[in-house]
Amino acid sequence: xxxxxxxxxxxxxxxxxxxxxxxxxxxxxxxxxxxxxxxxxxxxxxxxxxxxxxxxxxxxxxxxxxxxxxxxxxxxxxxxxxxxxxxxxxxxxxxxxxxxxxxxxxxxxxxxxxxxxxxxxxxxxxxxxxxxxxxxxxxxxxxxxxxxxxxxxxxxxxxxxxxxxxxxxxxxxxxxxxxxxxxxxxxxxxxxxxxxxxx
Length: 199
Description:
Elements (H helix, E strand, L loop, with lengths): L4 E12 L6 E8 L15 E7 L13 E10 L5 E9 L5 E4 L2 H5 L11 E11 L4 H7 L1 H7 L8 H7 L4 E12 H5 L17
Antiparallel strand pairs: 1-2, 1-8, 2-3, 3-4, 4-5, 5-6, 6-7, 7-8
C-alpha cells in the first residue's frame, strides 16, 4: 500500500555535546517559525534523536566525516515516533541525508508508514560561551541531566562543564507520512488543506 507523504521545510538546530558522543539531538521548526533568537525558543514541531551506528574501521572517520545514523523523529504534540536510516558527512558542519532514496525521491513511492525522509545542511556553528544562551533556550533538558536537575545560573559554570559543545543551525526538509503530520495539528491550525489529494 502506498503511504501518502507530505513535504515540510524549515530550520533545525542540533546539539553536538561531545566529539566522541554516540548520539545527538535536534529540533525542527517549520518555515513559518523564526530561529533567530538565542534566548527565546519558538515552537518546535518535531524533535530528532540520532544514534550513531558502529562502523567498520575501513568506513569510519576519526573526525566524524562520515557517520551512519538511526534517526528517530518525535512528534512533540502526540509523542508518536517514526524512524529512518541516515548518513551524515562534514564533521560538525552537518550534512544529513536519508539512506533510502525511495523516501526522498518520490512522494508516492514510500510504502512504510513508520519511515520518513530528511535533508539537513548546516549554515552556522556556535561554540564556547556563545553557545550557553542557546543551550538554555533550546536544550534545557540536556542541561538539567548534566547538572542533576539543577541548572546553574552562572553561564561560566556551564561553559566550563560543557566546553566541547557545538550548536549547529541550518535548513531542513522533511518528507513524512501525512498521518504523522495530521496528528500534530488541531482543526484550527490552518496548516493542512483538506482538499489536498492523496495520490
